[in-house]
């Protein structure tokens, strides 16, 4: 399935056999595979934004046909914002899924005009963030490190530029974005909260094209086209000098800081024949940030992915891929007597093989295996000057091995009932060299209770974990436009991001599971009702979920995390539970389109320890750092005229938990604040209104060379949303201060071009 103008693949396109009502959808490469008995068939092919096609074929053997769909000009009275077929939310067995339309993303109001995939996700039900300008995102009460973020199948361990203000993914490179909040396919594992899939585009086969954009703080460009008849190239880059953004901060230390970042992608796609496709993609992002004075932060990500796809026969496909993903942090101190470099990193090397088999129109099965090698450095520091007073030291590096296998089936029992069932097994081993400390029995673990240690040589197994991860989903279409869906699943995670802040920061580091840090396990069940109204012009959904989490972590008071060789002495083990209800309604057609969603959700944890002195809040459940009971998002888009569009967002959510002092006492002449219950208070609620106007320079929608101007205002009424509340002593009194990231409205202008 290809675009009739650009000749690019059309992912998500649909095919329907008129005689039997059998159907199928195109994969990310635009390929539709359908098994059908021989005979004369009438085929209907369609995709959102294209004219419908009809063709009669005689099927008497394996046949491959290319269809070219002509783009449909978007009429002012009929604007469809969806990137998928109209009845997807009724017909698909998957629930808790969010799809992002890339064209619509570039018209949304954003900070300083830079389109942002992850910021768009936080406008959806069940997805929140730790605060304005915070890195990462939280899904259904899960931490940011519990999201499996895959780009062309490779994990990204950091998704932020500029300490969280931007996402480090160039939207011009991306073809599809989908977020799965509930039980997802057994093909995927390794995280306990959600699955975010992003696939980059393939290069254009029929000519060279250039696209990009400029804004006050950044510029980006993408070039794609054919190197030969069988080889295409897609390459893009983005660079930013966001000092202008830093001037908006009230803090003098931030206002006088300096920052720079860039990211780049390249992808080669080779198609030697109709059955084989080989692709090689690479990605790199780099950030540098310097506060006034003596500290420079630098972090970067490197990703390489190779993939071979072989169509054995219609309905049977084999995929083989290998990947590398690494995230590296450096902190350089340049004070005269404190010259140092601190570093940490995580690296993942993975190989995987998958087989996809379509037995008939009603039954599909996937099987596969994967193997992962982890390399982790939690921290190392060394002096960098002759006069430095810093002593070199490091925590021993960690190595781990994870092996997984799975089977996943999708079975259409009747036209109105679909079942997805899958089973995954994963096994993890922590490898040497490794030193494991033993502690005195019947006493809290602490540096003072170490009794001895055991050393494991290089490659020796120091600890193992493993288990099954069942996945189940059911769809029952109870009426023509209504479906009830349910899902349940278990996931395991052998990685933890160690951080005692609510938002991701450069000093956070990854750690593998060990004897004292067992893998996280999550069990989630969900139930939802989905309905389309007025010929699918409106979509309504209500989803409820309950999630139980094992082996969560929190931190002891005064925990020392950096360069701690006995990190387990700073951690507390916890059980978690999250539950909520998500309501959404969207209008998809007409001059005025948009959506409204409201979520009630809770995220709670309870410390599990037999020692009273280590219990937090008496061992009772208390709000986690990401607990936001109420979240409300509204988006609207209005086609004002032939080329002008108005967009707006409104966001409201409950403030995150905080711990305020509830008393004070004097110790050795000093006044000390007393904190009794953790996360018993909250910072004030957050709310914000954004607007944007977009001007499309095309005279007709089929025009190839054009631009889109976007003028926007972020935080229209200049609300000083608090990021945190902190306390200081002033004139013998304890006073509270509010820290706001953006305390004013932020105008922006951006230009996106295509030719």
TrEMBL record:
Membrane topology: Multi-pass membrane protein
Domain TonB-dependent receptor plug: residue ranges: 116-191
Subcellular localization: Cell outer membrane
Keywords of this entry: Cell outer membrane, Membrane, Receptor, Signal, Transmembrane, Transmembrane beta strand, Transport
Single GO cellular component term: cell outer membrane
Name of a matching Pfam family: CarbopepD_reg_2
Protein's UniProt keywords contain Glycoprotein: no
PANTHER family hit by this protein: HEMOGLOBIN AND HEMOGLOBIN-HAPTOGLOBIN-BINDING PROTEIN 1-RELATED (PTHR30069:SF29), TONB-DEPENDENT OUTER MEMBRANE RECEPTOR (PTHR30069)
Family, per entry: Belongs to the TonB-dependent receptor family.
Entry protein name: TonB-dependent receptor
Gene source species: Spirosoma foliorum
